[in-house]
Amino acid sequence: MENPRKDGIPPYRAAVVHGGPGAQGGMADAAIKLADFCGVIEPLQTECSANGEIEELHNLIKNGGEPPVVLIGHSWGAWLSLLTAARYPETVSKLILVASAPFEDHYAAAIHKRRIERLSSKEKIEFSSLLQSLTASRSGEDKLLSKRLHKLFLKSDFYETGAEGEDYGNNIEMNSRVFNAVWSKAAELRSSGALLKTASVLKCPVLAIHGDHDPHPAEGVELPLKRVIKDFRFILLEKCGHYPWLEKHASEKFYEILRTEIL
User: Fold this and answer.
1) Which pLDDT score, from 0 to 100, does residue 135 have?
2) CATH class label, 5-107+172-262
3) What is the C-alpha to C-alpha distance for residues 29 and 104, in angstroms, rounded to an integer?
4) What are the sequence ranges of the domains in the chain?
5) Which of 62, 92, 129, 151 has a CA that sits 20 to 30 A from residue 232's CA?
6) Is the pLDDT of residue 140 over 50?
7) Which residues does 106 contact at the CB level (< 8 Å), separation at least 6?
């Protein structure tokens, strides 16, 4: 497996970081599109700890890219990118947080509720069943269960899928082992306030891009970060869910913003 993947021609001054944790290949479509106007790397996270992923991302950028890079992180990848930029400021020229998870616990409570409300009665039952099965699954089963659960997440996370988003779930390699190992520690960083404290030491400009239909509440990203980051901007995209580059109504605007920020 090539890691990092590379698209476009050198210099590789941009990097896209997938979410999950463990959703390898989650930003492949975005990397290919961005390669129309810049060299971009797509680091894949394989480590089973938050600290391990920070070190891994830093090394992949240093060895595969041409730092300092514009670091574009999606969902969990937004947190990971922030943590990496804070620890290794010389690696990142600008930080772009796409559809980030909220930075304080009291905003996070709404995510599950919003997702469930967008599912049919039959899908709600399947959703609950899959969560229980994953908790008790053996290693041979969790990959299939994760894929089925991810498809339900996608249904609730989109406002309206563009053509490129129809097969999105099929192009991702879900790793539940990475998810379970990394997310528990990541959640602790938020609960303890350490995540927001880390954000306060960032030295580079920070832009957060969020969809108005994203189940992750936009105010949970904008308001906490506005308090602690001096050079911070926030853009809310209309008719847009958790994957802006795949949304029918928002993808064009999303790429316009990235082009402006990278060039």
Assistant:
1) 59
2) alpha beta
3) 30
4) 5-107+172-262
5) 62
6) no
7) none
